[in-house]
Amino acid sequence: MLLDKHGRKVNYLRLAVTDRCNLRCFYCMPEEGINWLGRKELMTYEEMLHISAVLLKMGVEKIRITGGEPFVRKDFMSFLTSLSKLQGLQELTMTTNGVLTAPFVPALKKIGVRSINLSLDTLDRNRFFAITRRDELPRVLETMEALLQHGIAVKLNAVVMEGKNTEDILPLVELTRDLPISVRFIEEMPFNGEGNHYANLTWDHFRILDAIREKFPEIKKVPDPPFSTSYNYQIPGHKGNVGVIAAYTRSFCGTCNRIRLTPQGALQTCLYGDSVLNVRDLMRSGLDEEGLGAAVAKAVWEKEKDGWEAEKKQSVQSRLNASMATIGG
């Protein structure tokens, strides 16, 4: 069992399979992209399967695949199929931008993927292009439709940004009227690979909810699932629901049950902290499974209490270079 010194059980792994992406969302990376990792720097699929198997034996039950964009990595579905067969895995899911995903939806259903997080910040094609620097909204919507048709639960993740997409909050909420989806609004976070950290957050989770409540005063709070990062709400008569994630405010840290592995094998016990261990290097050094598990357990034990504590310890260089594409969101 993976435990930290605050008594929290860690049973959720976010595994980033690549830092590469086919979009250039301004809040994630510069327009020209970032310095992509070389092939030898990335964990191989075999290494990812090995560390995943070790962690599953230690109590991890859920694995979320992230990136970058997972589907830009060659042979990704073959890897995902192998991962789905590992003993002890209770839930396999992923976060995708949806641009390349639609053709693979039947295969995802077949291997037991029951839910997908789909990144979608706007329903307006022009604003989508302005935010992502790519004209791919129709393909993302095609993926959403395919997921719903195949009975895969959809969570739409929308980052709320001053002057960029606040007018999309209500149209996105309107989707929940007739579609059984969860629309989750996320506070903007300071990870764009350009060293821009925001001194003030103008659209925090309180303001987002107030904007929704102004149009839908009947919106009601519903119970949050265990370890939920979102505050969840239901509008009477709507098939779907709404969530608000205090990603920058970090009010959900107290129940954190997750760890992250970057594409190069760096273990992060907090999104806002530095990496604490490189499992790729340990595996390539020949460390056996027992030793690997012990090293991870020791690192997890030292997990910070919350994101504010982790950020205080973060190095200046990490803070400047941080990009969601390199740390797995």
UniProtKB/TrEMBL annotation:
CDD domains linked to this entry: Radical_SAM, Twitch_MoaA
Protein name in UniProt: GTP 3',8-cyclase
EC number(s) per entry: 4.1.99.22
Gene3D superfamilies: Aldolase class I
Pfam families: Mob_synth_C, Radical_SAM
Cofactor(s) the record lists: [4Fe-4S] cluster
Tree of life domain: Bacteria
GO biological process, one term: Mo-molybdopterin cofactor biosynthetic process
Gene Ontology molecular-function annotations: 4 iron, 4 sulfur cluster binding; cyclic pyranopterin monophosphate synthase activity; GTP 3',8'-cyclase activity; GTP binding; metal ion binding
Keyword terms: 4Fe-4S, GTP-binding, Iron, Iron-sulfur, Lyase, Metal-binding, Molybdenum cofactor biosynthesis, Nucleotide-binding, S-adenosyl-L-methionine
PROSITE patterns from the UniProt entry: MOAA_NIFB_PQQE, RADICAL_SAM
Cited InterPro entries: Aldolase_TIM, Elp3/MiaA/NifB-like_rSAM, MoaA, MoaA-like, MoaA_NifB_PqqE_Fe-S-bd_CS, MoaA_twitch, MoCo_biosynth_MoaA/MoaC, rSAM
Catalytic activity: GTP + AH2 + S-adenosyl-L-methionine = (8S)-3',8-cyclo-7,8-dihydroguanosine 5'-triphosphate + 5'-deoxyadenosine + L-methionine + A + H(+)
Residues annotated as domain Radical SAM core: 5-218
